[in-house]
From TrEMBL, chain A:
This is Imidazole glycerol phosphate synthase subunit HisF. It is an enzyme of class 4 (lyase). It comes from the Bacteria. Pathway: Amino-acid biosynthesis; L-histidine biosynthesis; L-histidine from 5-phospho-alpha-D-ribose 1-diphosphate: step 5/9. It is found in: Cytoplasm. It comes from Roseiflexus castenholzii (strain DSM 13941 / HLO8).
From TrEMBL, chain B:
The keyword S-adenosyl-L-methionine does not apply. It catalyses: 5-[(5-phospho-1-deoxy-D-ribulos-1-ylimino)methylamino]-1-(5-phospho-beta-D-ribosyl)imidazole-4-carboxamide + L-glutamine = D-erythro-1-(imidazol-4-yl)glycerol 3-phosphate + 5-amino-1-(5-phospho-beta-D-ribosyl)imidazole-4-carboxamide + L-glutamate + H(+); L-glutamine + H2O = L-glutamate + NH4(+). One of its GO terms (molecular function) is glutaminase activity. GO terms for cellular component: cytoplasm. Residues 5-200 form the Glutamine amidotransferase domain. This is Imidazole glycerol phosphate synthase subunit HisH. It is found in: Cytoplasm. One of its GO terms (biological process) is L-histidine biosynthetic process.
Amino acid sequence: MLKRRVIPCLDVKAGRVVKGVAFLNHRDAGDPVELAAAYDAGGADELVFYDITASSDERDIMIDVVERTAAQVFIPLTVGGGLRTVEDMYRMLRAGADKVSINTAAVLNPQLIEDGARRFGSQCIVLSIDARRVNAPDEPPRWQVFTHTGHNPRPTGLDAVEWARRGVDLGAGEIVINSMDADGVGSGYDLDLLRAIADAVGVPVIASGGVGSPEHMYAGLVEGCADAVLAASIFHFGAYTIQDVKRYLAERGVPVRM
Amino acid sequence: MSIAVIDYGAGNLRSVVRALQRIGAPLEVTSNPNAVIAAPAVVLPGVGATRDTMQSLEQLDLVAAIHEVIARGTPFLGICVGMQVLCDQSEEFGPHPCLGIVGGAVRRLPSHLKVPQIGWNQVCYMPHAARHPLFAGIDDGSDFYFVHSYYCDLTDEHDIAATTTYGLAFPSVLIRRNLAAVQFHPEKSGHYGLQLLTNFIRWAGVA
């Protein structure tokens, strides 16, 4: 049986791991290569490095981090953050990433999804979507896609479900859906949003943003119909280990790799 | 003597090389048919489509070399598309012939499921193959990492060493004498993936 995946996400800045609360107030949580190896040993199903800097010097540092990680860690590695061109994608994949994740750049230039998928295959292209609820309380739920969520979120006018569908049509092989309302708050995923996306697309959906406990992950996988859960601070500061989460899920009948 | 890792532009070549380096395997990355023929063991990596892979192998004059090494008994490991191209034919992007080394067709996974299959799934041994050296130290039913939309529908049950279930039970490991092939990615399957690669180089006598 195909397992549901538990994926730690490491925000990396200038070669070090940081994690923000609601994307801000970065705290240093260590060396990404060491953390990656520790997570691999601890049972992580994949790893995501999110490069939260985009200057060219720091991009070169990131490539070095990816190369050193890929020499030591033999589970899938996704790199996202600041990738704007097919050439940017190529450099990360050549350095040892298995997939690249794109977000703002894909909104600005949807052709990037298609070009990346054609060159590297859909399995390499992850479309990451930041979305916020925009319906009035008495309306059915609706979510809008935002870009530049780190500092100064900009509304795009795109409906999140429509954008996910279009991204898959263009060649995205997986969708990461991040609820901006929930991110960093630790109150759980936006389950309505997850379910709406999972119903709309035929590729794996990865839930991100807002996890404070294994119960939230269970809800995201079972009620939200996600294929995988992505989380950062819950693991980095030792509140729960990956095995804690997997045991919790397994005891409740969710198939996980132990 | 070094294992020949065939370079025809496969996207996972470097990952396979890194994993083999990690387990200490002597290797040479090559697209030279003579180097492939001379090698004590051969690895054919793969990600992507069978048609592109076949075209690349043909352009590089590697088709005859692959037939020759498998026929003469050189230990051979195909990975993902490197397994699929061993079949007679593939239906990916329209029917086309493949290497025809094992009987079978490359077919799309059932459409009621999410395709590609992405993630960790169990590899369950066939009784006749459970004690094969390729599986040493790896429990029956262990999880390996899969990324694929197509699978090998093999004709001869004796070629099937293990199966995995995703909508249907498909062959996830093929073993025939010196020939082994896996649908999953051992280079991305953590500890058990490295164990399987270690088992291969020991079985091949190049460890």
